[in-house]
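Job type: complex structure
Entries:
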Amino acid sequence: METFFLYTAIYLCLIMLLSLYRAVFGPTVLDRMIGVNAIGSKTTALLILIGLIYRRVEMFVDIALAYACLNFIAVLAASRYFQKRKGLYDENH
Amino acid sequence: MTLVAAIFIVLGLFFFTGGSIGILRFPDFYSRLHPAGKLDSMGLLMSMTGMALYVLQDLSLGALLTALKIMLIVVFVFITSPTATHAILDAGVRAGLSPWTAPEKEENG
């Protein structure tokens, strides 16, 4: 079962690259935030997978909970910050 | 039990994959929020349920507590993910980004 978890974790990392493309090349700032949010929620699952691989789930669960909380606060703060600014780039206008 | 956990984790991976491809391929960021929300909710619910079932295999108090914490993360994400999605959407609306509309098609009969 550890092998299965290992391959799952590797696959999640590969999926993260897709979201990383959106975070790096996104046309607007909000596209980048969507990419970062998606990477964060995948990391929450990845942390518990790492805990299952190393057989230390009870420690990694707390780290995953803290990471989910941090991800939420980061996205909320960034969106509150950017809605007051004109720095959002609109490709159509 | 292990098989059920593996099936749940693979279902979660399916939702993660679909969400990531959707974020890549949708035309503008309003529509990209839709797969982002699905990825947060369904992918995390499925994969976390699988991991909690795997942890629950040896019935002890510690394992029960760990599984409960894993499901607590799911409850937390179910509250915070729509809030974060709504905050991003609100920032876009207030910044005046116009939503994507389909290009004009030729009318055939």
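Summary: Chain A touches chain B through 49 residues (CB under 8 Å). Chain A has a mean pLDDT of 85.
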